[in-house]
Amino acid sequence: MAEYSFQEIERKWQQYWKDEKVYEVSNGSDKPKYYIMDMFPYPSGAGLHVGHPLGYIASDIVARFKRLNGYNVLHPMGFDSFGLPAEQYAIQTGQHPSITTDENIARYKEQLQALGFSYDWSRELRTSDPKFYKWTQWIFKLIYNSWYNTESDKAEHIDTLVAALATDGNADIKAACDEDTPTITADDWNGFSEKDKQLFLLKYRLTYQAETTVNWCPALGTVLSNDEVKDGFSERGGHPVVRKKMPQWSMRITAYSDRLLQGLEKIDWPEPIKEMQRNWIGKSYGAEIDFSVVNSSHKIRVFTTRIDTIFGVSFMVLAPESELVVELTTEEQKTEIEEYVVAAKNRSERERMSDAKNVTGVFTGRYAEHPFSGEKIPVYIADYVLAGYGTGAVMAVPSGDQRDFDFAKKFNLPIPLINDAQKLTKTEADPTKEGKIINSDFLDGLSPTEAMERGIEEVEKRGIGVRKVNYKLRDAIFGRQRYWGEPIPVYYEEGIPKLVPDEKLPLVLPEVDEYLPTEDGDPPLGRAKDWNYKGHPYELSTMPGWAGSSWYFFRYMDPDNESEFCSQEALKYWKDVDFYLGGSEHATGHLLYSRFWVKFLYDMGIIEVDEYAQKLVNQGMIQGRSNFVYRIDGENTYVSKGLKDQHKTTAIHVDVNIVKDDVLDVEAFKQSRADAKDAEFILEDGKYHCGWEVEKMSKSKYNVVNPDDLVQKYGADTLRMYEMFLGPIEQSKPWNTNGIEGVYKFLRKFWSLFHQGEAFQVSDEEPTKEELKVLHGTIKKVAEDVERLSLNTSVSTFMIAVNELSSLKCNKRAILEPMTIILSPFAPHIAEELWHLLGNEGTVVDAPYPEFQEKYLVEDSIEYPVSVNGKMRAKISFAADASKEEVEAGALANETIQKWLDGKDPKKVIVVPKKIVNIVV
Ligand code: ANZ
User: Fold this and answer.
1) Predicted pLDDT of residue 33
2) Which domains can be identified in the chain, with CATH numbers?
3) Is the minimum distance from the CB of 455 to ligand 1 under 6 angstroms?
């Protein structure tokens, strides 16, 4: 038999696809469009491991399947090529980050191409390419020139605001703006100097500069976003992060909170992602209430979502940063309060929130007055109350809130129990232990929801509070004090930011002598020569990682356009992404920011959609499957796993690439480590068996499996099918190569259907019913599976079909040709080879998907189990269209059944058509 020489086949067709530009797609066709996209990777130095292609293979199968089904398919790939690792490397080596980035991209592309993906590489984009980031800068400018009108509920050009200010002032303007925006009249505005006007507008612009408390990471020399900080440490590198006030560019994403929530209802995204976004936006309904302070003109305004518990308030807590702290603290408490404030400042929000059991705080020395009972209640400061949320002050209800409860316990404060058992379930507060239940006055007898409404009405009536909706979402920091990012297209004239004119874009990243901050602590761009616009200094921070990825999906539609970010024709044709595939780790980062930018671009009338990805699927992670050898402590002897318990041993990670089916290649192991060269090995049945464990795939655990080696050994087609075979795409699963041989054998078996001995040989005979049944069963099942993205089950369907066709010794063109087409999305190289061997011109990529015909699946005859007195006694076949009477007569006439009837007349015969026959005697 002609060998299945996958290496030669794969090389040949990859070249052909490239030469013939098979995957290039045009913006316009009579076919319906289908846009399928993967989250583009950051090209890291380590290259791809077998986990990366999981999603890429799945999307490639769908892309190819859609193309066979008559769609004009856009399936692009690019690189998110600004990022910290290249910059860290540049700092260490002095080499420009673009060099490392280009090298890494070259390696990624080589690896991706070896897997036979159907990407249209002519549309490749890189976020670090000035031709691309010119438009990222252009979008920044648009955002800067906009404000959010909450009345029209959309972003508008800043000129509409300026016009309104000049005629009416801002009293009637409903806008998303800074909290401290003063009310001004038209006269005030018109009297402002140009500089004051610009400063005032910054309070409204959708991107603005303001003093912000940020997560500052001294080791990385940059500000990190909340989702880049985990438990007080940077997600990348694990460096400590401190809170610090700095002037920062921010984006007013909070203006879009509600629309970001509403939009989730109309997109087909995984529920956990939607839930994470909802929680991150964190919309809460409640009220703000003023508590007056005893012997003071100050009032403490709190935000509460549980006004129904107001009769359970026994103290109040201010955030340590609250401006009231200084005003209210009494002389005696001053020192203690000041010390506490300093300590609290350096704890991250997360720490402060999560460290509930160890609540801390200090008494201010003051009392507030309960608005209904008139009781005196002490005022504390505590860091579990955050300055940046609500009003930065709370009314504490120990029976309703666990942190308040813990605080009350610690400081020996009363724990009033409210007269409604339902309200006590949230904390450990227990009436049997904590004492008497108090009356909740006008809220008595109401359900919590009714009590909420009643409470709000009451405070509004008394003029001591208002209904209030709060969001957890914060404006997004939009600047990094780093080099390797898009320059922000802004310069400063007398300290006022001005936009760089369009014709100066792209504002190209300048050369610097070192990628480190300057001696004055300015970002690296402070080192660039002539970094100014007509003598006015340019902004020194660069854009964050999420800038380019917030709109790249539009650029693929028209990647070479030099005069627009994307042409209207391309936008009208492709509209949005039909199917987006990528990791769930981006839930509250990229996947939220990109939705925000898209809504903004929609408001500007530039695009027609306000959600860009109709469907999102998160592929699972491929975990590593580590292998271990066991060294006997104090000896240079390794003992096989089954015998290790007889010794005291230490488990050592061993490179999974020298282990097969958990059996160690002892010679390779000896060579891999200097200290193992003369080691002894205690074997079982002549073999060294390794232990294994599932862990994250990483270099340090020696469990990284590289796709290149597998492509070399088994071919890309086998690897593609094998990765799909591992299990449902959304699930995380450990990598193991134990089953790859099976997939490889399957492809060889498929190949052999087309061959007789050495020769390619297919017959033109008419197929049998059985053969047609196998084919149409496969067409149907695979098409359904691909639509549902159940790709592991389609792989098994193929395997079953090929086994059946092998036993039928089927080599008929009428069966094998359509089988080749349906296999092609999964194993494109072998399919292309066989397609050509079958004598076809052109590529299998454009073949029509075979049409499923139900009639081939309809059975001619049906086998009925026949029971006598409830026991199955025979199986008898009848024509599928046999009548009830025919089945009954046939069953009674059957020899075996006659034996069981033993000459008696049946009392009853029940025939369930197409199912069973039951005879009672
Ligand atoms: C009284 C109360 C009683 C509360 C009760 C809760 C339970 P969400 O849903 O997250 O919006 N709170 C308000 N501002 C805060 C701040 N700056 N830092 C920490 N906590 C703050 O939570 C709103 C609730 O969290 C508010 O309702 C307030 O406590 C607290 F049984 O008021 B509550």
Assistant:
1) 98
2) 12-139+573-618 (3.40.50.620), 147-264+481-537 (no CATH), 284-470 (3.90.740.10), 861-920 (3.10.20.590)
3) no
